[in-house]
């Protein structure tokens, strides 16, 4: 992690078919607990994690259900960005995604990195 940063950006490329999506949100929530400002940028099949009812399909025991992890993350001030081409390629629109998700390009991710955010990817 960059010295002195209070920001963490997590890139997630895995969707409901992978335990890594649950791990990513567990770590993201841990970052919030640690006092970090956490943003997640979802690409590829990770877009399905924030499709309405999509996150209901995954639970990796002993982790909390993905639905609960994502809901908790957003309620606690976490930020979720969804890659526009990835959303579009799946035929989704903003209205297909859960509340609190912003469809925005990688410039948001790059902006946080330029400000010194630490990064993780799953």
Give a short synopsis of this structure.
This protein is of the alpha/beta class and 122 residues long.
Tell me about this structure:
This is DsrE/DsrF-like family protein. It comes from Oceanibacterium hippocampi. The protein is of the alpha/beta class and 122 residues long. The chain has one domain (7-121): DsrEFH-like (Hypothetical Protein Ychn, Chain: A, 3-Layer(aba) Sandwich). The chain contains 4 helices and 5 strands. It has helices spanning 19-33, 66-75, 84-89, 107-114; strands at 7-12, 37-42, 79-82, 101-103, 118-121. Helix 1 runs parallel beside helix 2. The model has no long low-confidence stretch (mean pLDDT 92).
Mean pLDDT level? 92
Please tell me what the overall shape is.
globular
Known CATH architecture: 3-Layer(aba) Sandwich
According to CATH, the homologous superfamily is DsrEFH-like
Sheet with the most strands: spatial strand order: 4-3-2-1-5
Task: Give the proportion of residues in helices.
Answer: 25-40%
Total domain modules: 1
Q: Largest sheet, if any?
A: 5 strands, parallel
N to C succession of SSEs: EHEHEHEHE
The stretches of 5 or more residues where confidence is low (pLDDT under 50) are none
Number of helices: 4
Distance between the termini: 16 Å
Beta content comes to 15-25%
Topology-level CATH name? Hypothetical Protein Ychn, Chain: A
**Protein structure class:** alpha/beta
In total, how many beta strands?
5
**What is the CATH level 1 assignment?**
Alpha Beta
Rg, alpha carbons? 13 Å
InterPro entries: DsrEFH-like, Sulphur_relay_DsrE/F-like
Protein name: DsrE/DsrF-like family protein
């Amino acid at each position: 992690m960059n010295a002195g940063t209070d920001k963490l950006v997590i890139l997630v490329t895995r969707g409901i078919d992978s335990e890594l999506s649950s791990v990513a949100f567990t770590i993201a929530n841990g970052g919030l607990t640690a006092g970090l400002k956490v943003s997640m940028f979802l690409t590829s099949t990770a877009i399905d994690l924030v499709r309405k009812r999509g996150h209901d399909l995954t639970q990796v025991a002993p982790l909390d259900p993905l639905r609960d992890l994502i809901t908790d993350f957003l309620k606690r001030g976490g930020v979720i960005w969804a890659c526009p081409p990835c959303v579009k390629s799946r035929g989704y629109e903003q209205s297909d995604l859960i509340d609190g998700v912003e469809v925005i390009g990688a410039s948001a991710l790059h902006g946080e990195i330029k400000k010194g955010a630490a990064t993780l990817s799953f």
